[in-house]
């Protein structure tokens, strides 16, 4: 029958993809209904992802920098950490942003409905309201932005309160004495950085032969070296084979070259995220969900059902907020009849660890696998005056160029603020810049950004100034 509410555009999920799509569609004159099960808009990124993690990482950075400066004549003593107050500040940061979204939705007259939505047909979604009861929404277009969830492991006692996923780790209930981090990817290592600086003895276990397996091995080496020295352990090519919840702790069996057991007070499981495609009644709308749970889409973010779109984590890798927002705009514009496409050449990745690791475009690994002929320009930060004046010399900037055209096709940066520096390289790749364009661009001295120009000069053989 006819639904309780009607929308030109129904958006399912209010994360970075969903709220962006909703706002863009409203700006283009559409009546928009935005459905989310959570009390605050913003999805994973604002509530339990990008933003709370970056607030805590800032605290970690302040601690690390004051400790480092003690070696250079500026000592503050041990930090006194009020975990409750830190948690409160992190929650305030999140609250300001999610509250801002509520205001922006109201300004645009986007109707928000709080509850769990599922398709009941190709033109209707039913929402189990958070306050009880149900409502139905008839739509002309739908945009699926249902995001993803942390992966659970069968041999881990997830119901034990000492076992956390990223959401639990961000709650910052306490600082455990011994923390096991299962998974040496970006999320695991960011939370390891936080808990290490707050005083936990952190052990990281990674199945692959390097941390952050998507990045080049040389790029993650400075981070690997630093955390190997600072943490209780960083174990590569190691798997957690069993975890037993005992009163005295979580006893984990680690299988690497040898098999050992160790006891931990808490454990963070950060082994990846799975898309929410299977949870939304897609079959009732005729929308295809693949065997991994992703919703396949074309370059206009259309699913196999032409008036239903999907964006963000639920459509595939990389599961990043800035990919979701760009896809959200495309989907909204297409529902409004515009001829928009998602045609980004590259999407940057950043680990906000210490040091930060950032890369964009093709990696050396990928270039080698694909047989792409490339040249390389590297500038080590040991020769950067700015890096040394920050008390850090382990970073480097690496640019990859197409061997014939000399256009930049990939870049990696490791060191403090690498996540900020990678932006210029994304722009360079999008604009088809070559090594001369980058090398001849005058970067301010002394900045970390000038290492980008110098890496291009290193490739061209014109590098003269090492400072
Ligand atoms: P999500 O943000 O996952 O939002 C989906 C929304 O849909 C949620 O609000 C959910 O409640 C709702 N929902 C799902 N199903 C239903 C349903 N059936 N009915 C109603 N509501 C539903 N990315 C970065 O780019 N930078 C970072 O620094 C970064 N840090 C991260 C740190 C952590 C700890 C984590 C976990 C992730 C991080 N990410 C980061 C990834 C980023 O959070 C995601 O890529 C991004 O949130 C995806 O946006 P989305 O719109 O696809 O979906």
Mean pLDDT: 97
Weakly predicted, low-confidence segments: none
Q: Give the ligands present.
A: flavin-adenine dinucleotide
Query: What is the overall silhouette?
Result: globular
Q: How many individual β-strands?
A: 21
Q: Major sheet: size, sense and barrel closure?
A: 5 strands, mixed, barrel
Q: Give the helix proportion (percent range).
A: 25-40%
Beta-strand portion reads: 25-35%
- Spatial sequence of strands, sheet with the most strands: 1-2-3-4-5
Straight-line distance between termini: 73 Å
* SSE-based structural type: alpha/beta
What is the chains' assembly state? single chain
* Rg over C-alpha atoms, rounded to the nearest angstrom: 24 Å
Organism: Geodermatophilus obscurus (strain ATCC 25078 / DSM 43160 / JCM 3152 / CCUG 61914 / KCC A-0152 / KCTC 9177 / NBRC 13315 / NRRL B-3577 / G-20)
GO molecular function: dihydrolipoyl dehydrogenase (NADH) activity; flavin adenine dinucleotide binding
Enzyme class: oxidoreductase
Keywords: Disulfide bond, FAD, Flavoprotein, Lipoyl, NAD, Oxidoreductase, Redox-active center
Structural description of this entry:
It comes from Geodermatophilus obscurus (strain ATCC 25078 / DSM 43160 / JCM 3152 / CCUG 61914 / KCC A-0152 / KCTC 9177 / NBRC 13315 / NRRL B-3577 / G-20). This is Dihydrolipoyl dehydrogenase. Keywords: Disulfide bond, FAD, Flavoprotein, Lipoyl, NAD, Oxidoreductase, Redox-active center. Its cofactor is FAD. It is a single chain. The chain is α/β, with parallel strands linked by helices and 467 residues long. It is 34% helix and 26% strand. It is built from 14 helices and 21 strands. It has helices at residues 16-27, 43-48, 50-70, 83-107, 166-171, 186-197, 217-230, 282-285, 321-335, 364-370, 385-389, 418-430, 435-440, 450-460; strands spanning 5-12, 32-36, 111-121, 124-129, 134-144, 148-150, 163-164, 178-182, 201-205, 233-235, 239-246, 249-255, 259-264, 266-269, 273-275, 308-310, 349-351, 356-361, 374-380, 396-402, 408-415. A five-stranded mixed barrel has the order 1-2-3-4-5. It has a five-stranded parallel β-sheet with strand order 7-14-8-9-10. It has a five-stranded antiparallel β-sheet with strand order 17-18-21-20-19, sandwiched between helices. A hairpin with a 5-residue loop joins strand 20 (396-402) and strand 21 (408-415). It is globular and about 70 Å long. The structure holds flavin-adenine dinucleotide (FAD). Flavin-adenine dinucleotide binds next to helix 1, strand 2, helix 2, helix 3 and strand 3. Flavin-adenine dinucleotide binds at residues 12-18, 35-38, 43-45, 49-50, 53, 116-117, 145-148, 166, 187, 276, 279-280, 312-314, 319-322, 324.
């Amino acid at each position: 029958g006819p639904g309780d509410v009607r929308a030109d555009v129904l958006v399912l999920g209010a994360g970075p993809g969903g709220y962006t799509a909703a706002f863009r569609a409203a700006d283009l004159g559409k009546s928009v209904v935005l459905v989310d099960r959570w009390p605050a808009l913003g999805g994973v990124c604002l509530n339990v992802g990008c933003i709370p993690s970056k607030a805590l990482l800032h605290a970690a950075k302040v601690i690390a920098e004051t400790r480092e400066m003690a070696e250079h004549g500026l000592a503050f003593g041990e930090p006194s950490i009020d975990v409750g107050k830190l948690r409160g500040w992190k929650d305030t940061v999140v609250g300001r942003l999610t509250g801002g979204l509520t205001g922006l939705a109201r300004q645009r007259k986007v109707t928000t409905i709080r509850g769990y939505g599922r398709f009941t047909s190709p033109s209707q979604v039913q929402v189990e309201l958070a306050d009880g009861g149900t409502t139905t929404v008839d739509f002309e277009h739908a945009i699926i932005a249902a995001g993803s969830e942390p992966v659970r492991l069968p041999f881990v006692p997830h119901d034990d309160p000492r076992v956390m996923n990223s959401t639990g780790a961000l709650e910052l209930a306490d600082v455990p004495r011994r923390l096991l981090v299962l998974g040496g990817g970006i999320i695991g290592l960011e939370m390891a950085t936080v808990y290490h600086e707050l005083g936990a003895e952190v052990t990281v276990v990674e199945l692959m032969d390097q941390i952050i397996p998507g990045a080049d091995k040389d790029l993650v080496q400075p981070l690997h070296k630093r955390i190997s020295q600072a943490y209780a352990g960083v174990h590569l090519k190691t798997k957690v084979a069993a975890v037993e919840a005992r009163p005295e702790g979580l006893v984990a069996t680690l299988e690497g070259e040898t098999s050992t057991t160790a006891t931990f007070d808490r454990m963070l499981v950060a082994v990846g995220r799975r898309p929410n495609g299977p949870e939304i009644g897609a079959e009732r709308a005729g929308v295809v969900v693949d065997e991994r749970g992703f919703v396949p889409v074309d370059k206009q973010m259309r699913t196999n059902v032409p008036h239903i779109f999907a964006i963000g984590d639920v459509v595939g890798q990389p599961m990043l907020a800035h990919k979701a927002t760009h896809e959200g705009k495309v989907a909204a514009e297409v529902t409004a009849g515009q001829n928009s496409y998602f045609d980004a050449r590259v999407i940057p990745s950043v680990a906000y660890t210490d040091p930060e690791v950032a890369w964009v475009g093709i990696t050396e690994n990928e270039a080698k696998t694909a047989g792409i002929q490339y040249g390389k320009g590297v500038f080590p930060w040991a020769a950067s005056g700015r890096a040394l004046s920050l008390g850090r010399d382990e970073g480097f900037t690496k640019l990859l160029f197409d061997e014939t055209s000399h256009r930049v096709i990939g870049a990696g940066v490791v060191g403090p603020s690498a996540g900020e520096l990678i932006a210029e390289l994304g722009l360079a790749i999008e604009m088809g810049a070559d090594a001369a364009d980058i090398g001849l661009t005058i970067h301010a001295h002394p900045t970390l950004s000038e290492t980008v120009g110098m890496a291009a000069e290193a490739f061209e053989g014109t590098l003269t100034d090492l400072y």
